[in-house]
Amino acid sequence: MTVTVTWYLVLAAALFSMGAAGVLIRRNALIMFMSIELMLNSVNLTFVAVSKHLGLIEGQVAALFVMVIAAAEVTVGLAIIVAIFRFRSSANVDELSELRG
Amino acid sequence: MQGGAWLPIAFEVVLLVGALAVLLVAVVAGRDRRFWGPAAGLAFAGAALAGVLQWREVSTSGAGLFFTAQGVSFAKSPMVVMDGLSAFGAIVLGLVGFVGFLAAWDLVAKVGRRGPELVSLLLLSLAGLHMMMATPNLVVIFLGLETASISFYVVAGFLRRQKGSAESSFKYFLLGSLASALFLYGVALTFAATGSLTLYGGNSIRDFFSSTIVTQPGILLAGMALMLVGIAFKVSAAPFHQWAPDVYQGAPTGAVGFMAATVKIAGFAALARIFGAGLVSQVDTWTPIVAVLAAVSMVVGTVLALVQSDVKRMLAYSGVAHAGYILTAMTAGVAGVPAMWFYVSTYAFMVVGGFAVLSTVSGSDSSKVPLDDLKGLVKRSPEMGWLMTFVVLGMSGMPFFAGFVAKVFSFVTATAVPAPWPANDHGYLWLVVLGVVMSVVGLAFYFRIIGTMFSTPDDQAELQEAGLPVRFAVIVSAVITVAFGIVPWPLIEAVRDAFPI
3-state secondary structure string, chain A? Predict the structure, then answer.
């Protein structure tokens, strides 16, 4: 059985869906944050697989850019979570209910 | 216009240099805002000037694509584009950025030593936002989107000791990153379906559609849908608007206007670029989806704005409704770009002006602005009261205010082009009827704001004097709201050239 590009695309789609489900279902800020990283990395898998399949370099370059963006997002995201954690000592997003109306 | 040309990226260069200059001056000369403030102001004004120069260049020599270095396989992919869309967007972003910066001047005073950081984040975000509309490459659009979004996450949570600000920042971050990831997956799937990341040039997405008949559109449709969802998130179109009220309410009032206005400008420009120009051959596929988004946004935004008790949340939901009216224009495909520009450029000033008034009333670092704060504003401060009345009337779409012209322009555009679904020659007439009904329903909460401002003030309510820059920002916004309502023709003429190539 040969592994074609479709396998990679299906795997990436499955990972992306898991990530999206994680953001929507889980209530712990850090887990939600990890789910977003999972989504970004599944996109990377798609980029690289398609790039290899089509014999183009663009997709691999795009994957590098996405990694940098993901790193920048981690920096800011963790800082925000720490800022909240400091005066709440809980990472449960359901307790963030200051703003409503 | 090839090689060695700085003009196409002048907007970004000026802002990035400005951001660094602000930080450097703050280190060298001192953190007093008198030292670095002029540098920031110059950067915003210079960016707008760069936009004007781009506009002149485009109208004399025509639009241009700008390429990467030769010799690599993607050498044929243009990375920068300078055309009517990007040049007009540069002017609008520069001016709105400048006015929004002035409106944030009191907030800058409140945050004290951290002022330079706040302002350099605003400068960086504006550069990212223009990158979204000045490139034909989908990955660069994503980079611009993230540059702006990550800056805005920090700005929203800038007053991190306030519960509201931190929470707003976190919600913005989580839902914003989710939207970015969705958009990016859309880009990846479009790449998988078409084998290209560029909208124009050799081996582009446009090329692909002109030479290929798509027989199995599944991946392509998924990609287009995900990109549309990502942009709809960023411009807070329903049903992807849930973050907007919380973020607007929690973020420091002095900076909300800047954030809300500039994101909308760039989001709609990117929509026009990707869907109006790049996926122009798929127009029958995506305009019905945009029409549904528009309809849901108008209804959800207007109805939920009616039941709010906080003015910031009210304006956030009104922003959702306005996103719906702007999307109405975009249902005409690329023909809707002028109406989109007219709407978005006048609305952006109303948003900046409206939030600037709120920041003088409730404090620029406040996170909540209950409607009672505006009680008797016209008597307590006639200047702010009347200017806010003009801005709110502009938003409500009363005749003789810019909002009215913008709505009419948008509705006329939506009925000018035949619609694919339901197929007819009158365009999206049902959407326009819904839009008119929702404009009338929306008057209820706009007049609630105005009625509160004209009511009798409580005795103790003493209004603190707003700084001169903030007052100037409010005056400019109100003047633009009124001027383009009475004499809209110059702007209508200008936006007719603000097309993507």
Answer: CCCCHHHHHHHHHHHHHHHHHHHHHCCEHHHHHHHHHHHHHHHHHHHHHHHHHHCCCHHHHHHHHHHHHHHHHHHHHHHHHHHHHHHHCCCEHHHCCCCCC
